[in-house]
Design a protein that fits this description.
- The chain has five helices and five strands, in the order H-H-H-E-H-E-E-E-E-H.
Length: about 130
């Protein structure tokens, strides 16, 4: 049996998240994870994360506070263990009912079949506006 490619591993993540399967999604991650999502202070769905358990907490918080509406994956760039996903997403902040519409880039790294890096770049102004603006 041939090992799964890093791209295949990362692509398994999104259907699991869409189905609300946080534990199964977190199982794709290594015991040690480099996690980064630059965000405004006070955003409740971005905790400190450094492990697969932390990723599960992140996915659960995300599901609690945000409802995914659109996910448009436009490009996947893979080289070695690194996989970068580029696209656009729209999510609704449940607390305010306002949408976050943003382009995104997600830099992941997969080593020994597990995701070891999850660095998401998005429009933090759009996040703050949807969550904080009255």
């Amino acid at each position: 049996m041939r090992a799964e490619s890093p791209t295949q591993t990362v692509q398994r993540l999104f259907p699991l998240l869409a189905e609300g399967k946080s534990a199964e999604a977190a199982a794709l991650f290594a015991d040690s994870v480099s996690f980064s999502i630059p965000h405004p202070p006070g955003i409740p769905w971005v905790p400190r994360v450094d492990s697969a358990d932390g990723m599960r907490t992140f996915f659960e918080l995300l599901h609690t506070h945000v409802r995914a509406k659109e996910f448009d994956l436009r490009q996947i760039i893979a080289e070695g263990d690194d996989v970068v996903l580029i696209g656009r997403l729209v999510s609704e902040v449940k607390k305010t009912g306002r949408d976050i519409g943003t382009a995104f880039a997600l830099h992941t790294t997969v080593q020994h079949g597990r995701i070891t890096r999850y660095h998401l770049y998005e429009d933090t102004h759009a996040v703050a506006k949807a969550y904080f603006d009255e």
